[in-house]
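Subject: Sanity check before I submit

Could someone independently write out the structure tokens for this chain? I want to compare against mine line by line before I put it in a report. The sequence has 416 residues.
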Amino acid sequence: MAAPGENLRINGDRLWDTIHEIAKIGPGIAGGSNRQTVTDEDGEGRKLFQKWCEDAGLSMGVDQMGTMFMHREGTDPDALPVYVGSHLDTQPTGGRYDGVLGVLAGLEIVRTLNDMDIKTKHPIVVTNWTNEEGTRYAPAMMASGVFAGEFTQEWAYDKEDAEGKKFGDELERIGWKGDEVVGDRKMHAFFELHIEQGPILEAEGKDIGVVTHGQGLRWIECTVTGKESHTGSTPMPMRKNAGRGLAQITELVHKIAMDNAPNAVGAIGQVNVYPNSRNIIPGKAIFTIDFRSHELDTLNRMVERLYAEAPKLCEELGVCLEHEIVGQFDPPAFDEGCVKAIRDAAERLGYSHKDIISGAGHDACWINKVAPTAMVMCPCVDGLSHNEAEDISKEWSTAGAEVLFHAVVETAEIVG
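---
Independent answer below. Compare away.
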């Protein structure tokens, strides 16, 4: 496969301007973004992305999960496409770069190829996966999970948000329910650029993270049920306080994660307490535990320990515990050939780099099950993400996109 030379560079200013132009759609309240999946804002962002892609000569396909596939022709009609992308949906108080950088860097690859009149043997497909964040509809990486056969489409359609609105209905309402059968597309390879969402690259002064593995995760939704009663008139020994069950399990989750550090993490990130009144002892607490590790055995041990110890803690308090896994995937090891293409690109371009394990889940984690896959990461300030204060520099975005460009184009094979 022909490798493009060091003189092939993307237009970093154009990429940067494109990122901040789409940020005007679904603006947050503190400079970030709020384009939650299958909202009107998500639909508007998709329309703008579609226009940019069609202006660049790409043709669009949309599958029944709403994932957008923007196609640039290759010279060989029998060659499988090289896919590149990420997601445009955000957290409710999300930053401007999480996911968006990876999608728009894919568009910038195509724009750069057009500028230089470069053709590739394999087609290139820029992809916007639906509902990567999983904040409105759990689990995260929903559309890529259906694509990879991990979830059924019917199950995904039936997922409800906090207002009882079904994912499938909302997808159709905003006009982005496509006709393509999900998962029918075949890939030569898939590449994803993402901000690190952690502090390692910035702390070590590295331009590029070459992602070799991802962390597996288990999201465990727990319901602790006690008995609502008056906070002033119920004697302490007679209380069945669901809030205490939440507190005890919170400490247990922290202890389990610490006992498995540095190869694992864990926390409770979402909590709802009922009836949430100042003078009523909580009768119910519903919360989600997030365990992660790049070692499958470690991840499974953490879950097993939780299941063994948490019910005993609740029993001692006189409350009941129910639990259910609502999101999971095993730790992925990315394709060695695709990883090498990224590492070689960073070397060729003179960017400092290091191998890294992704602490967050990404669409690439599911696609890795059905196609050769790898990820590029760039630093983000203080490792902050899922926060409107999330920030990167134009230089970081340019470096990440240039490494992505070279890896994708090398894999797609320049013609002539």
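---
OP: Matches mine. For the report I'm noting this point. The two ends are 12 Å apart (CA to CA).
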